[in-house]
Specification:
By secondary structure, this protein is of the alpha+beta class. 48% of the residues lie in helices and 23% in strands. InterPro entries: DNA-bd_dom_put_sf, HTH_17, SinI_DNA-bd.
Length: 141
């Protein structure tokens, strides 16, 4: 398993430019180590960057709004055959998320786990998560 990644590799993996990665370094959002004048990043460095808005952190920090509000979190993995299929799933889900659901107490997370697997994580009110989860199941399976 690879121990260190370069700026270019991290940018490619996250789907951003190398300038964005350098901006993260400058702002302190990303930390790394300089080896021979070149930045190198560990898995922990990268997870801290992308984990700052971790669904579990967001979920655990939310406050109860009133006695009727039930917050839930749902995560599931989707097998994909290609990067394009993963991108198509993401776009379809984001379109539905943005067009149909509204409100502050809802979150949608998308993660590329491997070239063969993506992870979708939903959090928010029980009604939102269960309805959106059902829609995903009907649409994708």
């Amino acid at each position: 398993m690879k121990t260190y990644w370069t700026i270019e590799e991290v940018a490619q993996e996250l789907g951003v430019t190398t300038r964005t990665i350098r901006n993260y370094l400058k702002s302190g959002e990303l930390s790394g180590t300089k080896i021979g004048g070149q930045w190198r990043f560990t898995v922990e460095n990268i997870r801290k960057l992308v984990g700052a808005n971790s669904p579990l952190i967001s979920f655990s920090e939310n406050k109860v709004i009133d006695n009727n509000y039930q917050e839930v979190i749902m995560a599931f993995n989707l097998p994909i055959k290609s990067e394009k299929e993963g991108s198509d799933y993401r776009n379809l889900l984001l379109e539905q998320y943005n067009e149909v659901y509204s409100g502050e107490n809802r979150n949608f997370y998308y993660e590329i786990v491997s070239p063969e697997l993506i992870r979708i994580i939903l959090s928010g009110s029980a009604k939102y998560v269960l309805n959106f989860g059902t829609w995903i199941e009907q649409k994708l399976y």
